[in-house]
Amino acid sequence: MNFIVTALLTVQMLSAVTMIGLILMQQGKGADMGAAFGSGGSGSLFGASGSANFLSRTTAILATVFFSATLALAYFGNLHVDNAGSVLERQPAGQAAPAAAPQVPAEPVVPPSGAAAIPAK
Are 55 and 105 in contact (CB under 8 A)? Predict the structure, then answer.
């Protein structure tokens, strides 16, 4: 089980770093519109930009791999959770339950008239 989680973490990290690099290498859509208004030649102002190129297809595939690895890690991370009730009721490993307040014995109440002592309840 530990090997699977390590492999999924590796796949997730590699896909994230590669996806960041591919996104930074791509040209933004706003650059084509700016070129249409006089700073250069553009194929179309608001028309279709054609089919997706290699970078955008690879980015979409890596995004799918990243989200799949994330879902798998979430699934494997919740496999060994005990059903001990609420999250607030569970104790972290290595910590003891909080101790109850010490019981202080009640002293008998002595009435001022000198009558017999009445124990407090």
Answer: no
| Residue 37 maps to a domain | yes
Q: What is the DSSP string of 3-37?
A: HHHHHHHHHHHHHHHHHHHHHHHSPPTHHHHHIII
Q: Is residue 47 part of a domain?
A: no
Reported pTM: 0.53
Nearest to 79 by CA among 12, 13, 2: 2
Coil/strand/helix, residue 105: coil
Amino acid at 73: L
Rounded to a whole number of angstroms, the CA Rg of the chain reads 34
In a domain, 10, yes or no: yes
Percent of the chain clearing pLDDT 70 (strictly above): 47
3-state secondary structure at position 13: helix
What total number of domains does the chain contain? Answer: 1
Over residues 73-119, the pLDDT tens digits come to 999 888 865 555 666 666 666 666 666 666 766 676 666 675 565 66
Name the one residue in this structure whose structure tokens are 């001990």.
Answer: 84
Q: What is the rounded distance in angstroms from the CA atom of residue 18 to the CA atom of residue 28? A: 18
